[in-house]
Structure formats: C-alpha cells, structure tokens
Write a structure and sequence with these properties.
The complex is a heterodimer.
Chain A lengths: L1 H51 L2 H8 L1 H7 L6 H25 L2 H44 L5 H23 L5 H25 L1 H11 L2 H7 L1
Helix pairs in contact in A: 1-4, 2-5, 4-5, 5-6
Chain B lengths: L29 E4 L1 H4 L10 H6 L1 H7 L3 E4 L27 H13 L3 E6 L9 H8 L12 E2 L20 E4 L4 E4 L14 H17 L3 E4 L17 H17 L4 E4 L5 H4 L11 E3 L3 H11 L3 H9 L8 E5 L6 E2 L5 H11 L6 E2 L2 E2 L3 H4 L4 H13 L3 E5 L57 H6 L4 H13 L3 H4 L1 E5 L6 E8 L2 E8 L5 E5 L8 E4 L4 E2 L8 E5 L4 E7 L19 E3 L17 H21 L13 E12 L2 E11 L6 E10 L4 H7 L3 E7 L2 E7 L4 H12 L3 E4 L2 E7 L3 H5 L12 E2 L3 E6 L3 E6 L8 H12 L8 E9 L4 E9 L7 H17 L13 H21 L11 E2 L2 H24 L9 H9 L1 H12 L6 E2 L11 E4 L2 E4 L10 H4 L6 H22 L3 H30 L13 H21 L5 H12 L1
Parallel strand pairs in B: 1-2, 1-14, 2-3, 3-7, 7-8, 8-9, 9-10, 10-14, 23-27
Antiparallel strand pairs in B: 4-6, 5-6, 11-13, 12-13, 15-16, 16-17, 17-22, 18-21, 19-20, 19-22, 24-25, 25-26, 26-28, 27-28, 29-30, 30-34, 31-32, 32-33, 33-35, 34-35, 36-37, 38-39
Helix pairs in contact in B: 9-10, 9-11, 13-15, 22-28, 22-29, 23-29, 24-26, 24-30, 25-31, 26-30, 28-29, 28-30, 30-31
The chains are: A mainly alpha, B alpha+beta.
C-alpha cells in the first residue's frame, strides 16, 4: 500500500510538476513563436532601411558583397545584417523563454551570445566602412599618381588599399576580441620586418646617395682644412 | 504630305502701282526713253511717238513701271530738245499731239506712268517769248520774260557750266542791244522768275500737260531759276519759293502726280529741294553715281559708304532718284579733283571719251563689257535707297560712239534686231538721225533685243529677272538703309529694312572671289533666302555669318522668319552654349538608388536639374521633338539601363515629357566622353551635345549616343549577337534578320560611322554607305508597320526596290508590349527623293521659259527622259503591289478580295472627308490667300456635284483585291537611284493609329497618292519660279502640260505591269476607286493645309476644281 502511495505520490508530484511546467513551456513556446515573428519583421525592416539609405551600394563599392559572394553566401552584406538582426531578436526571445522555464544556465549561455552580437555588428560596420575608405583612398592615390605620371600608379594604389585594409581588419578583430595578443604580435613582426626591409633597401640601394649626402653635410675638405 | 517648303508666290505684287497710291514714286523703277532714239514708225530715220507706243509692251515686259520721256517739244534741236521753242506741242519729227495722247493712253492701259520734262530755266532763242522779248523795249513785261543787262559784268560769282563751249554766262543780243543771261548754251536764254508773268505762263504750261494725264515732271536745271547779285546764283531761297509755288499748284488740283528735281548738287544742297515735303517729291542723288564707279574701280566700299553717310534724311514722302547712266555725260562734278583724275584714268583713258567734267560713255563700255561687273553695278543701283532710273539700251548692254560729237554718242538708235538700222527704222541708213552702233562687240548685229529675248542667260533676261525680284519687296524702294562693316573692305554689305521685311545685300566689289563674315547676331534664327533663286541658306546663328562671293558677285537675301531651314542643314549648337552638369560619380550621379548613402541628396538634386533643365533645353531644339514650340516642364526618365561595353557605358533611357504633348515618350540613348582621356569621342559628341559635364577636375561632354561611333557599332554588334539587356520593367532586345550577313558584310564592326542626321521623327546614322542605323525618337506602342513591312519585303517577298532590313532594336515591356527603338537597314546610294528631283526638274524647265516670249513653243518630246523615269517609278510601284499581293499564310499580308462592303466603307470615308474639309474651308475662308479665294468659292459651290460624283465613283463593281499597301505614297517616299527608284518609309499615314496603318486597302490608294504628288510638284514649281502673277499665268499652262504627261505616263506604265495581277477594276483617271481615292486625298490635303499651311491651300483647291471638271 505504502509502495502504491509512493508511486501515486511520485506520479502526483510528477503530474503537479508537469502541470506547473506545462504552462511555462507553452508560454516559452509562445514567446519563441512571437519572437520569431518579430525577428522576421525586424530582419525585413533592417534590410529595407539599409537599402533605403543605399547601404547596399556602400557594401558593394567596399567590396564586401563580392567577398561574401566569393565565400559562397547567397545574399549581400545587407542580407547578412538582416540575418544578424533576426538572430539577435530570436536569441532574445529564446533567453526570455528559457528564463521563464528557469533554465538559467542556457539563459546565461545565450546571454553571452547575445552580448556578442553588437560587437559583431560593429566589427562588420568597421569592415564595410573601412573597406570603402581603403578603396576610396587607394583610388585617389592611383588617380593622383596617374595624373602626376608617376610610374606603377596602380601598384601604389593597391599597396595603400591593402595597408589600410590591414589596419581595418586588425581593428575589427580586436573589436570582436579574436586573436588578441597573437594578432598584435604578428602585426608587430610584420611591421618590424617591413621596416627592416625598407631600411635594408634604402641602405643598399641608396648607399652612394647617402654617402654623397654625408659628404655634403660633413665634407672631407673641412676636415683637411682643420688639419 | 510633301514636307518641302517652297516659297509662296505673292500674287498681289507688293509694288504694283495702284491709281490711288500717292507714294507710287517710292516704288517706281523708271525707264528713261528718248522718243527720237527708240523706234521709227514712219521710216523717216527718226523715232516717233507711234514707234514708242508700239514698243510700250516691251517696256512693260521689262518690269519697269514708269517712263521718263526726254524733251519732244518743237525745238531747233541744238541741245537735243532741251532748247524748247513751244512748250505746248510736239515736235513734228516725233508726231503730233494726238500721237502723244495715244501713247499716254496706251501706257496707262499697260499700268505705266509717264513722266515728261518741264524745262523752265530757259527756252530756245527761237521761242516766241524770246523773240518778243528781244524786240520789246526795255522794261516792258515781254522784255522782262528774260534776264537782260547792259553789261556782262553782273553776277560775276557764277560758274560756267559748259566750260568746253561757253566762255561767259552773258551773250550780246544785237537786236535787243543788251546782254541776256544763260547758264547753259548761249542759244538757251534763262527765263526771269522775278517777273510774275513768267510764273503764270509756266503754270499754264504745267496744267496743259497735267490735264492731258501726264503723271509727273522732271524739273530740268532747277537750281538756276533765280539770279541775285553777290551769290553763286544756285539754290537761292527765291528759287525754292518758285518750286513751292509749282508744287502747291499741283497739289491743289491733281492727285498722285510728282516732281523730280534735277539739281546737280551736293546732297545737303539737294536736300533743300524736298523742302518740308512741300517742294519736289524726288531729286537725283548725283554724287552717289560716280562713287559706285569709284568703289568698283578701287575695289573698296569706302566711296559709297562715305557719300551715303553724308546723305541727309529726307521727308517721309520724298524719295531719291538714282541712276548709273543717262543721256548726259557721266558727270564728275560731284567728286574731288583727285578722284576725278582717278576716274578719268580708269574709265576714260581715251581723251575723246571726256567731255566737260565727265565721261561720255554708256554703262557696258565703261565696264569693258564685263557682264559680271555690269550686273554688279545694276544690283547696286536696284538695291540702294531710292527709285532707280534705267537708261534705254543699258538693259541689253548697248555700246556708244564718242566720235559722233557732243553727247550724241550715248543717244544712238535703240538696237532691236540684227536687221538693217538695228531694226530701229526701215529708212535708208544715211537718213538716220545718228548711225547705230556697228562695232564688233556692241554692234546691233550682236547686241540687240531680239537675240537677248531668246537667250535666257542674256543681260536682258537677267534684268527682267532682277526687276521682277525687286518688285517682290517694298523694302527696296521704301526701306531704311543700314551698312554692315565686315572686316573685308572689298565687300559692301547693307540691310534694307521696311516693317518686318529685311533684305540683306552683299556685293563683292573686287575682281577675285572674297570671303566675308557678317555680324548678323540681331537676326539670330532667321533664314537668309537668296532672292533670285529663292534658295534658303543655313539660319543665322551666334557666330558671324560666313559667305563667299565670286568675283564681282552679289547676293540679295531676304532674312526670313517664315522660311524653312534647308533640309540638309545640321544645327550644331556649340557645346559652350549647353548647360553644365556636375557629376560626382559618372552616370550613377543621376540615380539616387545607386550612390553611397551620404550622396543621396546630391544625386536627387543633380537628377532634378537634369530632368527639368538640361534635357528639356536639349530636346526642345531637336528636329524630332514633335510638339515644337511647346516648352517642356520636365523630361522624366521612366526607364533606363546602363549598358556597358568594355570601358564605355551608355545610358539607355526612355523619357516621358511633362508639359508637352500628352504621353510623349521618347528614346534617348546618351553617351559621356571625357576630354583628356577620350578626346576624339568628346569631339564627336560635342556636335550633338546635351550638356557639358564636370567631375572634379575632369571635364567632358554628354551627348546623343548616336553621335558616338562606338555606340553605333555596339548596337550593330548587339544585333548580330541577338543580345538582350534587362531593364526594370522589361528588356532591350537586339536581333538581326536573315539579310543581316549579306547586308552588313563580315567587317561590320570596323565600318566608319558618319555624323548622325536628324529628321522629323528619327535620327539616321550612315555607316560607310553600307548600313543605315535609324534610331526612332518618338515611341509608339505596338508593331510598327515599317518594321513589319520591312521584314516581309526583305525576308518573304524579297522585293529588291526597298531598303533591306538587317536588324532591329526593340524595348519589350514585361506585359509584352513592344516599342521599336532602332532599325538597321541597307544603305541606298541615291540622288535625292522623287519630290526634290521632280520639283527641280520642272523648275529648270519653267525657268527656261520664264523670260522668253509667250509664243515660244515647247518641243514635243521635251519631257521624254523624265517621263521614262516616271514609267520606271510606275513599274516599281506595280511590282511592290504585286509583291504584297502574293498568297501567303501570314494573315497580316494575305490578300483578300474586295467586296461591296469595302467600297461602301471607302465611299463613306471619302464623303466624311468631303464634309469635314468643305465645312472647314467654309469656316476658314478668311485664312485662304486672296488669290485662291475664287477657287475656294468654286469648290464650295461644287459641294453637291462633288458628292454626286463620289457616289458615281463608288458605284464601281467590287472587283480586285485588298492588300497591304504603302499607305503614304508620294514622290517624297521614293529615292532616285541610277535611273531607278527605291521605295522607302513604310510607316504609313502619320495621322493614323498603328492598327489603321496596318489595315489592308485597294492598291489604287497608293496610285492616287502619287498622282496628287504630281499636282503638288506642278503648282509648287510655278509658285517658286514665277515672281509675279503675269509670270505665273504664263508658266501655268507649261506646268499643267507636264503634269498631265507625267500622270499619263505613270498610269499607263502601272497598268502595263499591274493589270494581270487583278488588283483593280479600272485605272481611268477620275473614275472608279482611283477617282474616289484621288478626291479623298485632295480633300484630306485641303484639311491639312488649312490647319497647318494656309498659303498652300491653293494647291489642293486646284486639284479639287480639276477633279470636279475632269
């Protein structure tokens, strides 16, 4: 009898708990469903808004669209931003839903992911504007060199573009806190190597010019006169 | 409709002298005749009034409207009649007073005014007044008729005029025992106007002739009437008082008579003879004449400009009389002594040719018989301010004989023919008053009226033409004169302006061809129409107007506001006049959705400027803009795509116009080229520039892409490769036809491209005379009949005499609607269209007969060569119809039998047209030119008869076929190519919808269109060749004969080719369907002309009258 009671109690308890959990689950499901709808709407609104202000033109000019296309993505950068917004809203809904269900660990986990989204967004914006700026400055340098009839104008332009892009990528990466020290060190190594290469090139290629310069600043004759 | 402008004959000549016109003398061209020299009717060796009367028609035909008769009064003839012995009679040598009256009547019947001499300064010493005076006691009224003195020391300050013969102005009269005063010869004593009896006698003489009907007097030697001690005895105040009295006497009793003062004085002195409009109506401008000679001798305009500047203004009702030569010597009194020396050495190297202070020669010998110089002199005479006087014989270039003595060398008999005595008289040669000119150059055998009348290029024919042209504008007689001062001093250029009428006269005074740049900026936009040939020159623009003129050449231009610009003229607006569009990102600067976010505002601003200012300004000046004159508020780009080929991008735009015609949609492909990077393209584009563009430091041109060689080639290449370009609401579809390879050849991508030519609806680019890219501008939705017919004739019927279709560019909207944007056709090397060819042909033919005597017959087969060409045209027309009548499965082209219902429809349409056109005519009768009113009334009166005849025409049995036809067939739609024709422009009647144009009809509609076109040519040619109503009347029968021959040739050759195809029942002109279509077309033309070109209404009206009476 006692065993029956235990079973019954356990069942009752289970049923109680289930009865208490079911509404929470249903509510969570409702929250997720509503969140999904809102996310869809936000995605639509973000994409429309971005396109209305010609953000897509900017990303295309910046070359990020092309980059994404080459990476096998169906849409352009604006689509990606829409997607980000969609997931941000959906994740928020999930947090609420899980929180409601008392699953705090999952809530914390999702919370961290959601907090990362703005950083990603900013990093992507940095990439978009940075790439546009890089290509703008690169083109300006190239056009200036062409007009000034400086040889290798195209190469110089590209060099400037790549140099700016390097900084932009670094900033973006530091924004999303990826890489950290190793990226910085790699950058410093590359910079130091570059400076060394320039110094060597200048030292070897411009030896005579440097000698002539030195000669002018401290001429041998003056030494002779002094003696 | 034949879209060619032909000037319209003003059938009421502007300068026709009407009896009521008090200012008739301002438009007069005066012919100076010496009765003695003109024609001898009684074979006594001296010309007479009967002779003159018989030659008045010649004078009238010359184109002058006034005759000035030199003295014909009884006289001892010691000074060629200027020594009068009886003021109120006719010298018996010249006939009787009745002969004079008969001559006057005849002249007035021929609308010629007659001016005689009133010589009141002096009489002959044989005049009864002088005989009475010398025999009367001093102080008596008879004696006082003349100026007497006991001494020859009075009036010592007076110059002697005839220095060669007279040594004093006083001559001793042994009878009167006193000296008498004479300013001219000693046998010409001066009348004494201080004696009131003299004035009374003179007024009586004047009234005698005025009562008879004489229209005016030339007042001979007028400055010398009164004498006062201590003066030069010229131009005295008292003299003017005498003239005022004469004028008052005329004005009191007579209308429209005039006085012409002969005062050989400087202009400022002559000015006095006009008074305040209360002395003489006209006065000679003596100083101008030698300066015209001087200007040509020195090849410099200065002498003429200088004297005209010194010429004072004269009262509104007065006029100058100007001349080149007259019965006296070419007087050099009005030039400085240095100038006189220059004139003597140039024009009278032979001392015999000099007399007094002048040169006794005629115009032709002075010009060394150089026809060009003679013409130039006459052109100056006829266009300078004043009424010109022509001296008899100068119109044929008569010579002189200065060995005869005095000035008789320029008074020899008129040279009528190569017969004995120059046809002047049948008398024995030795009886002639003077021998005629007989030398090899000027002799009557070679220079005579008869020969020159026959020769259309003779001086006589030319003079007739010039006088006819002068009559067409009152500006010559009445206009203000304004000299232009081009840099080239050998060019004399001046404007004659009267009301809205402006005439530009340009003369090259030098013996070699000269260029000139004229500043005509104030006449910008006007079209200079050369008045002799009525040829329109390119319109006046911003830049100086450049002309080149042959040696001693001249032009008279009417600066017209109503004439059409020559069809071949390309209006190139300097790119500097185009607005500047500042771009920041190439083409995308115009599209807000294609720029980076922070430039959206700038893009919107640029687009607004582009659509509301740049494009409207460009489109409004284009020939293909349909609503000409209507300003465009905004040219809205409704559909566009940036088409990129290699490094070049074009904007393919469809544009809708706000503020212009409803739903006006245009195709506007545009190109951009930057000056530094793409100089050659930029240069090409600047010929049809839309705007100057700037992007940062780079400048360039945006222009019509058809002016871009690369674009034209890209279009052809895209057609060859069946390219498609997606647009937001449809696509651009390029495609080639089966004939592409054959027409375009393998090297089509490398063909040189010529500059585009704009026409009323499209732009045509010629590619090395092999391909023709035709860009349509005004777009229409639907299947274009030109494309449909082109495809059928090229690919199915293989009709050789049309331009083969090689490719097409269409815009196909998402809803399936198509718009034809461009077509690629094979180029047709041609000699112009049939309209210009025929019109020019007929004009040449008529020109030949314009100045010849009316009786000259046209040779029987005169038009045979032309008619052969028309037969070929008829054959090609028949072949076209046969090609279109071939059985085919294509429902759009398969022929169907003509049934009763069709004829009923045709009948109804024609009757509707008749009602519409005739009602419109009745409502707009006041718009019909005066000359055509009678015809209009005749047409309106025939209304019922026309309807009945149309019914009769429609009663024909329904026999024949309905096929696709040309639809707008006339001479302007066929190109003449090596004695053959190519039929073009299958777009159909522009006023109809595309569906109406694609309907099937009886082919006789095309035939009727062509027949009407002949009628247009016929009447246009007469209007453009004839300068006045008389010429038009003379030429009309010749033109009508041509038309009837051309019609007959066309119909018979068409019949021969088309009969067997069973296309129609009868081809009898004016009957059956042909007749019905012809009258319908004429009525349509009437409606069109009333609405668009009222001066042309006469042409369809005549066609309707002819049809009604046919």
């Amino acid at each position: 009898m006692q065993s029956i009671d235990m079973v019954v109690d356990a069942t009752r308890e289970f049923l109680h708990q289930t009865a208490a959990f079911l509404p929470k689950l249903l509510l969570a499901l409702l929250v997720v469903a509503v969140g999904w709808l809102i996310a869809k709407a936000v995605r639509f609104a973000v994409e429309r808004a971005l396109r209305a202000v010609n953000f897509n033109v900017l990303t295309e000019r910046a070359g990020t669209d092309n980059f994404l296309r080459q990476a096998g993505m169906g849409g352009d950068t604006t689509t990606l931003f829409g997607l980000l917004a969609f997931w941000a809203v959906l994740l928020a809904a999930l947090i609420i839903a899980f929180n409601g269900m008392g699953l705090t660990y999952i809530t914390d986990l999702l919370g961290r992911v959601v907090l990362f989204t703005p950083k990603l967004l900013i990093a992507m914006l940095i990439m978009v504007f940075g790439s546009y700026f890089a290509s703008f400055v690169g083109n300006a340098v190239q056009n200036y060199c062409l007009d000034a009839r400086i040889p290798d104008a195209e190469m110089l332009g590209r060099l400037v573009r790549y140099a700016i892009m390097l900084f932009v990528i670094m900033i973006a990466l530091s924004q999303i806190e990826v890489g950290g020290d190793i990226v910085q060190r790699t950058f410093l190594i590359i910079l130091a190597g570059l400076m060394l290469a320039i110094a060597l090139a200048f030292g070897l290629g411009g030896k005579e010019w440097a000698a002539a310069l030195l000669q002018r600043w401290w001429p041998q004759q003056r030494k002779d006169q002094d003696t | 409709m034949n879209d060619v402008q032909v000037p319209v004959l003003d059938t009421a000549p502007a300068t026709g002298i009407s009896a009521d016109d008090a200012l008739w003398y301002k438009d007069a061209v005066i012919y100076q005749v010496n009765v003695k020299s003109f024609f001898d009717s009684n074979d006594d060796g001296i010309g007479d009034f009967k002779g003159l009367t018989s030659k008045l028609q010649y004078i009238r035909d010359l184109g002058v409207n006034t005759i000035w008769l030199m003295p014909f009064y009884p006289s001892p003839l010691k000074d060629d009649g200027y020594d009068i012995a009886d003021y109120q009679n006719v010298h018996p040598q010249f006939g009787t007073l009745n002969d004079f009256r008969a001559m006057l009547r005849e002249a007035h019947r021929l609308e010629l005014k007659v001016v005689t001499e009133l010589i009141i300064n002096h009489t002959s010493d044989q005049h009864p007044w002088f005989q009475a005076a010398r025999n009367s006691p001093p102080g008596s009224p008879q004696r006082d008729f003349f100026v007497w003195s006991d001494t020859d020391q009075k009036y010592l300050g007076t110059r002697i005029i005839f220095t060669d013969t007279e040594s004093s102005n006083w001559t001793w009269d042994p009878v009167a025992k006193a000296y008498y005063w004479h300013r001219f010869f000693s046998h010409q004593p001066d009348l004494n106007f201080d004696n009131p009896q003299v004035m009374k006698a003179v007024l009586q003489v004047m009234r005698f002739w005025l009562e008879m009907g004489v229209d005016g007097f030339r007042l001979d030697a007028i400055p010398y009437l009164v004498e006062r001690e201590g003066t030069s005895n010229e131009n005295l105040r008292e003299t003017h008082a005498v003239i005022k009295e004469l004028r008052a006497a005329i004005d009191a009793s007579y209308r429209n008579r005039f006085l012409l003062a002969e005062a050989n004085q400087w202009p400022e002195d002559v000015r006095e003879y006009f008074g305040d409009g209360d002395e003489c109506h006209m006065a000679y401008h003596f100083p101008l004449m030698p300066r015209i000679y001087m200007a040509i001798a020195q090849e410099d305009r200065y002498p003429i400009i200088e004297i005209m500047q010194q010429t004072p203004d004269i009262p509104e009702t007065c006029q100058w009389a100007i001349f080149l030569r007259n019965h006296d010597e070419l007087t050099l009194e009005m030039v400085t002594s240095k100038e006189r020396d220059y004139m003597y050495t140039t024009y009278a190297a032979d001392l015999q040719a000099r007399i007094n202070l002048g040169i006794r020669r005629r115009l032709a010998p002075l010009m060394e018989n150089d026809l060009e110089r003679i013409k130039l002199m006459n052109s100056l005479l006829l266009s300078m301010p004043g009424s010109p006087i022509l001296y008899y014989g100068d119109e044929i270039g008569m010579g002189d004989n200065f060995f005869i003595g005095d000035r008789n060398g320029v008074r020899t008999p008129m040279q009528w023919s190569p017969d004995r005595n120059a046809g002047f008289s049948r008398a024995d040669p030795q009886r002639l008053y003077l021998p005629p000119i007989m030398d090899a150059i000027y002799g009557y055998q070679s220079t005579n009226v008869e020969a020159q009348s026959r020769d259309p290029s003779s001086l006589l024919s030319w003079t007739k033409r010039m006088l006819a042209v002068r009559k067409t504008s009152q500006a010559f007689g009445r206009g203000a004169r304004r000299f232009l001062r081009p840099g080239n001093r050998k060019i004399l250029a001046y404007l004659r302006e009267f009301g809205d009428d402006t005439i530009l006269c340009v003369a090259n005074l030098s013996r070699s061809a000269q260029p000139v740049e004229l500043n005509l900026a104030s006449f910008k936009g006007r079209v200079p129409v050369e008045m002799l040939g009525r040829t329109a020159f390119p319109p006046i623009g911003e830049l100086p107007y450049l002309l080149t003129i042959s040696a001693y050449g001249f032009y008279w231009f009417r600066l017209a506001t109503d004439a059409a610009v020559p069809s071949w003229h390309e209006q190139i607006v300097s790119v500097d006049e185009r607005p500047v569009v500042v771009l920041f990102d190439g083409w995308t600067s115009l599209f807000r959705e294609r720029v980076v976010p922070w430039r959206i505002g700038m893009a919107e601003k640029t687009r607004t400027q582009f659509e509301t200012d740049t494009l409207p300004r460009y489109i409004e000046t284009q020939r293909w803009y349909a609503a000409k004159g209507t300003p465009i508020e905004r040219a809205r780009i409704t559909e566009n795509v940036l088409w990129q080929e290699g490094k070049v991008t074009w904007l393919m735009a469809l544009v809708e116009l706000d503020g212009a015609e409803p739903h006006g949609e245009y195709f506007l492909p545009l190109a951009i080229a930057w000056e530094e990077r793409d100089d050659e393209r930029a240069r090409n584009l600047s010929t049809s520039a839309v705007a100057k563009i700037r992007q940062q430091a780079a400048v360039g041109v945006m222009g019509d892409a058809f002016a871009d060689e690369m674009f034209c080639r890209a279009v052809v290449a895209a057609m060859a490769s069946h390219r498609e370009i997606a647009m937001s609401s449809g696509k651009l579809q390029f495609r080639r036809t089966a004939a592409f390879a054959e027409v375009a050849g393998p090297d089509f991508a490398a063909l040189p491209v010529e500059r585009p030519r704009g026409s009323s609806s499209n732009t045509v680019v010629n590619m090395r005379e092999r391909l023709m890219l035709k860009g349509y501008r005004r777009l229409r939705v639907g299947l274009n009949p030109e494309l449909e017919m082109g495809l059928y004739l090229t690919e199915v019927a293989h009709f050789a005499n049309c331009a083969p279709l090689a490719g097409v560019l269409e815009f196909i909207a998402n809803d399936g609607q198509t718009r034809l944007l461009a077509m690629l056709q094979g180029f047709i090397a041609n000699q112009g269209d049939g309209w210009s060819y025929s019109l020019e042909y007929l004009r040449r033919h008529l020109e030949q007969y314009r100045t010849t005597p009316a009786g000259d017959a046209v040779p029987l087969n005169a038009h045979e060569a032309y008619l052969n060409l028309i037969r070929v045209l008829a054959q090609r027309t028949a072949e076209l119809h046969q090609a279109l009548a071939r059985p085919t499965k294509d429902a759009a082209f398969s022929p169907v039998p003509l049934v009763r219902a069709d004829i009923d429809t045709y009948r109804q349409r024609a009757l509707d047209e008749a009602r519409g056109a005739l009602d419109l005519l009745a409502a707009n009768l006041e718009m019909v030119p005066a000359a055509d009113r009678e015809r209009a009334a005749a047409v309106l009166a025939q209304r019922e008869m026309l309807m009945t005849r149309m019914d009769a025409c429609a009663a024909a049995t329904p026999q024949g076929k309905k096929i696709r036809i040309h639809g707008d067939y006339h001479l302007g739609q066929v190109l003449v190519t090596r004695n053959d024709f190519v039929i073009i422009d299958f777009e159909g009647e522009p006023g109809h919808t595309l569906e109406q144009r694609r309907a099937k009809h009886s082919p006789l509609r095309d035939a009727a269109g062509m027949l009407r076109s002949f009628s247009y040519v016929q009447q246009s040619a007469v209007r453009s060749v004839a300068h006045n109503e008389a010429e038009a009347l003379k030429l009309a029968p010749l033109a009508r004969a041509w038309e009837s021959e051309a019609r007959a040739a066309f119909l018979s050759a068409y019949e021969a080719s088309a009969r067997k195809a069973g296309l129609y029942e009868t081809l009898q002109p004016g009957h059956g369907l042909l007749g019905l279509f012809e009258i319908e077309k004429a009525l349509y033309e009437l409606r069109y002309e009333i609405g668009n070109r009222p001066p042309w209404v006469g042409i369809p009206l005549q066609g309707i009258v002819d049809w009604g009476s046919g």
